[in-house]
Amino acid sequence: MSILYKRVALIGLGLIAGSMAHAMRRGGLAGEIIGTARSAETRRIAAEIGLCDQIAETAAEAVKGADLVVLCVPVGVMAAAAEEIGPHLTPGATITDVGSVKRDVIAQVEPHLPEDVHFVPGHPLAGTEHSGPNSGFAELFDNRYTLLTPLEGADPQAVAKLRALWEGCGANVEEMDADRHDLVLAVTSHTPHLIAYTMVGVADDLRRVTDSEVIKYSAAGFRDFTRIAASDPTMWRDVFLSNKDATLEILGRFTEELFALQRAIRTGDGDHLHDYFTRTRAIRRGIIEAGQDTDAPNFGRASPRKEDAAE
Ligand code: NAP
After folding, report:
1. Prediction pTM value
2. Ligand 1 atom closest to Cα of 131?
């Protein structure tokens, strides 16, 4: 791959920015990478591990001369980040973000950007429950989707170049309208996270009754909820507050389905349960066929029995 951007500025140095830095280096996509983060501690760690070529003290300083700026901060602080960098951007630069919600981020960022830059919002559909400057790795985006949600009248060249960057980072790239993105993500990511948080919360409430049994027997299914429910609290608070309408819409549907299943259990309607679970099993097969997960037993965990015993 050849260099696509001469100077890339990463604003925020957590899981996503760190993974982008590693992936851009792997692909030789950036001339130099400048990073900055809010806290001196994160900047210190990033410098220590050589995450970027340079670490800047402030976002305003980081974006100077950059032809690509990537906002990698929680969704709730995108406006503040855009406000800080706005006056320091280079004409012709592309500004993008990696926020998990798109309509709200566009509303936050756009008013602070000068006319002579290209704003192309984006969202890599890849992550882990870890955060911070040490958590990134080059393979995070491999064979995962990154969705770009260009605004009306976006410069096709700026969009194409950003697409090439994400492809160079290993991602499959698609374009989508921001509202559609927010609804799709409410189904595939946001509501499932809320359900996982709830299930783990319920188990925590029961802990006193069950002593340590919830932890000991967690491999029965609960464990997979706990991985999701260990995700960063700040990030997820912001996701729900900024994707409010779509999340509430999907939660409403979820509640209806849950009541229907509850009723089937109460009335002993085994056919309803069996049909429902048959349909959902097919969805899992579809995900595997699309190459978006492994079909190895127990999500490919190396040695399920040994691992279970250790927990
Ligand atoms: P992360 O590992 O927690 O890193 C967040 C970064 O933002 C840190 O450098 C942090 O600085 C900075 N930050 C936090 N609060 C800030 C504030 N109030 N003002 C300025 N900077 C602040 O987060 P991440 O997982 O990389 O997520 C970053 C973005 O990617 C979010 O918008 C998220 O929605 C999106 N995203 C996340 C995932 C995922 O699974 N994690 C997947 C796709 C997209 P300090 O370290 O100095 O506190």
Report:
1. 0.92
2. 2
- 3-state percent helix, strand, coil for the chain, nearest multiple of 5: 60, 10, 30
Q: Which atom of ligand 1 is nearest to the CA of 124?
A: 43
* Average pLDDT of the residues in 107-136: 97
Protein residue with least CA distance to atom 42, ligand 1: 127
CB of 70 closer than 8 Å to CB of 97: yes
pLDDT digits 0-9 by tens, 75-89: 999 999 999 999 999
The Å distance, Cα 15 to ligand 1 centre, comes to 7
Instruction: Give the Å distance between the CA of 53 and the centre of ligand 1.
Output: 20
Domains annotated for the chain, with CATH where assigned, are 5-176 (3.40.50.720), 180-306 (1.10.3660.10)
d(CA 260, CA 200): 22
What are the phi and psi torsion angles at 207 (to 5°)?
A: -55, -40
Q: Model confidence over 137-164: pLDDT tens digits? A: 999 999 999 999 999 999 999 999 999 9
CA of 216 to the centre of ligand 1 (A): 32
